[in-house]
Specification:
The complex is a heterodimer. Chain A is an all-alpha fold. Chain A has a domain of about 60 residues. Chain A is built from 3 helices and no strands. In chain A, about 25% of the residues are buried. In chain B, helix 3 packs across helix 5, helix 3 crosses helix 6 and helix 5 packs antiparallel against helix 6. Chain B contains 7 helices and 2 strands, in the order H-H-E-E-H-H-H-H-H. Chain B has a single domain, classed as Orthogonal Bundle (Arp2/3 complex 21 kDa subunit ARPC3). In chain B, strands 1-2 form a two-stranded antiparallel ribbon. Chain B is mainly alpha-helical. Chain B is globular. In chain B, strand 1 and strand 2 form a beta hairpin. Classes of the chains: A mainly alpha, B mainly alpha. Chains A and B meet through helix 1, helix 2 and helix 3 of A and helix 2, strand 1, strand 2, helix 4 and helix 6 of B.
C-alpha cells in the first residue's frame, strides 16, 4: 500500500482521538437536532429497534476510541472492496 | 439526522427505500467513469474519515448537538456519485454494525444524507460556477444539511398526516424545529468542510481535482 495512504489514515485517527476528548467534554449525552425535535414531541418513544446491532459507539473515551478505529477500518475495507468490485465488473 | 425505527409511517419509509434503491442503482451505473487507481483508495480513506468525523458531535446551543454529514466534502472532492456511495456505505455500516439509525428507516437516511445532500451540493456548486468554487464551498455545505433536514421535516409531517398522528410530527412543529436546529448545525458543516478544502488546497491541491474537475465541479 502506498505510504501516503498510511500516513493520511494515521493522521485522521490522531485527529479523531483528540476530537473525541472534546466530544466527551461538551457533547456526550446531548441529542442531535433530529433527536431533540423528536424528544420535544414524544415521537418514537419506547420503540424497540427492528435490528439489534452487534456493537455500539461506546460509553466512555476508551471504548469510543476503539469503536471509532474499528468503524474506520470496516468502512475503509468495505468502500475499497465495493469500488474494486465495480471496477472489475466494468473492466470485464 | 439518523432516523430510528418507529418514527416514520410505513408508507413513508417504504417509499423512501424505493427511491433510495433507484438512486443507488443510477449511482452505480454512473460511478465507473471515476474509478481509477488514484481515486479508489482516496474514496475508501475519505469514507473512513467521514465515519469517525460523524462520531464527533459538536454543541450548537439549547442543549443540542450536530455532527458532520460529510456529503458536501465528498461531493466537492470526488463528485456526487462517489459521494453517494461513500455516505451510503457509512450509513449501512452505522446501522448494521453500530445500531445508529433504524434498519427500516435506512432508506430514509440514505435518501436524505446520501442522495439529497450530495445532489444539493453538486447543484449549488454548479450554479455558483468554477471561478467562485472556493466561496461556494461553505454555501453548498450549509445548503446540503439544511435542505436534507427540511426534507426530513417533510417526511415527519407526511408521516403524521398519513397515520393520523401515530407516527411523525405535525408540520407546524416539525418544520420550524428541524429547520431551526439544522440552520445552525449546517454552519458547523460549512466551517468544517471549508476548513478541510482550504487545508487540502494548501498541502495537496491535486486532491481538489480527484474527480477530474476543479473542486465541486
Amino acid at each position: 500500500m502506498d505510504r501516503k495512504y498510511i500516513v493520511v489514515s494515521i493522521a485522521i485517527l490522531l485527529v479523531f482521538s483528540v476530537g473525541l476528548v472534546g466530544f466527551f467534554l461538551v457533547s456526550d449525552g446531548l441529542p442531535d437536532g433530529l433527536d431533540k425535535t423528536l424528544e420535544e414531541h414524544g415521537t418514537g418513544e419506547g420503540t424497540e429497534p427492528v435490528w439489534t446491532a452487534p456493537l455500539d459507539y461506546g460509553s466512555n473515551y476508551l471504548s469510543a476510541l476503539v469503536m471509532g478505529i474499528v468503524g474506520f477500518f470496516i468502512t475503509l475495507l468495505a468502500v475499497y472492496g465495493i469500488v474494486k468490485l465495480r471496477k472489475s465488473v466494468k473492466d470485464a | 439526522m439518523h432516523v430510528a425505527d418507529g418514527v416514520m409511517a410505513p408508507e413513508v419509509w417504504i417509499t423512501a427505500w424505493v427511491i433510495a434503491l433507484v438512486g443507488l442503482a443510477l449511482m452505480f451505473w454512473k460511478l465507473d467513469k471515476r474509478l481509477d487507481e488514484r481515486t479508489m483508495p482516496m474514496m475508501a480513506i475519505l469514507a473512513a474519515g467521514i465515519f469517525v468525523a460523524q462520531m464527533l458531535n459538536f454543541p450548537v446551543g439549547g442543549g443540542t448537538t450536530g455532527h458532520l454529514i460529510g456529503a458536501a466534502l465528498a461531493t466537492i472532492l470526488l463528485g456526487p456519485y462517489a459521494a453517494m456511495l461513500i455516505i451510503t456505505a457509512i450509513l449501512v455500516i452505522q446501522c448494521l454494525v453500530f445500531g445508529d439509525g433504524g434498519i427500516t428507516a435506512l432508506g430514509l437516511n440514505i435518501l436524505n444524507m446520501a442522495i439529497i445532500a450530495p445532489l444539493v451540493t453538486y447543484g449549488v456548486m454548479t450554479l455558483i460556477g468554477e471561478r467562485r468554487s472556493k466561496a461556494g464551498t461553505p454555501v453548498a455545505a450549509w445548503a446540503s444539511v439544511f435542505i436534507a433536514a427540511t426534507v426530513c421535516a417533510a417526511q415527519l409531517a407526511l408521516s403524521y398526516s398519513i397515520s393520523g398522528g401515530v407516527y411523525g410530527i405535525t408540520g407546524a412543529l416539525a418544520f420550524p424545529a428541524m429547520m431551526g436546529y439544522h440552520a445552525v448545525i449546517a454552519v458547523g458543516e460549512a466551517i468544517v468542510t471549508t476548513g478541510i478544502v482550504l487545508f487540502l488546497a494548501k498541502v495537496s491541491p491535486e486532491m481538489l481535482r480527484l474527480n477530474g474537475k476543479p473542486a465541486g465541479a
